[in-house]
Amino acid sequence: MNQEERRKFLIRELLQEHVQYQNCEIPTGEREQRQLLRGLMNVRPPKKIGREFLRVQDEYLKAETAAKGITDLDDLEPVSEGLYLWQGDITTLRCDAIVNAANSGMTGCYVPNHKCIDNCIHSFSGIQLRMDCAELMGLQGHEEETGRAKITKAYNLPCRYILHTVGPMISGPLTDKDCDLLADCYLSCLKLAAENRLESVAFCCISTGEFCFPNDRAARIAVNTVKEFMQQETSVKKVVFNVFKDLDRELYKKLL
């Protein structure tokens, strides 16, 4: 199969899961097909699916990521010992683990084609990720607490693992507790990476998007927490601060 054939196969299989969608026509345009496939994956609940679907999905997603271009951490230059600043698509970074800014449900973003990092990571990792997260949450029996972290496989991403953490959501004036909880997010991810003997971790800007944490305070907390952690003996030797916005790049550049 080529990419178009894989894409159409996956769309047909997902449409067949819904009685009301079984007679839907697949759009002819590539852009529309991509949006439909991603949207169907986004809204799909965590449940099993056939091996052939997973085989085709894995081939499709790996090819999509390869087409975007994979960045290897070893090819980046540190801004200081063990610390990196990189502006790019975190789903294309090859390292030991990337950090996902998750919600308390921990099974991904269900809004079709939403641009949050949670949606992007689940979309390009594959539907296995949501099933793994749902299993972890089922065993836990309650929503994830703010500041905690969990680890899963990365499936079709170039990294090896994903560290999922729930950052504080800001709806009023920023408090000391909010700052402490954000620091806990970074510390929980670093501790979990060390427990699993990982060497490199790439952090997104936790809580600064949909969760409305002020960018400048968030950057200072991130850098200070990471620097303090790396002063101790740990397997974590390389930490990437991954930014999307120019604003965050300039903030981290000054701090580092």
Structure report:
This protein has eight helices and eight strands, in the order H-H-H-E-E-E-E-H-H-E-E-H-E-H-E-H. The chain is of the alpha/beta class. It has a six-stranded mixed beta sheet, with helices on both faces. A hairpin with a 7-residue loop joins strand 5 and strand 6. The N and C termini lie far apart (about 45 Å).
Name its key features:
256 residues, alpha/beta, 6-stranded mixed beta sheet, two-stranded parallel sheet
Short description:
This protein is an alpha/beta fold.
Spatial ordering of strands, largest sheet: 2-8-7-4-6-5
Number of helices: 8
The count of β-strands is: 8
Please estimate the helix content: 40-55%
Report the major sheet.
6 strands, mixed
Helices, strands, pairings?
Blueprint: H1 3-15, H2 30-43, H3 51-68, E1 71-72, E2 83-87, E3 93-94, E4 97-102, H4 117-125, H5 127-140, E5 149-153, E6 161-166, H6 176-195, E7 200-203, H7 215-229, E8 238-243, H8 246-255
Parallel strand pairs: 1-3, 2-8, 4-6, 4-7, 7-8
Antiparallel strand pairs: 5-6
Helix pairs in contact: 1-2, 1-3, 6-7, 7-8
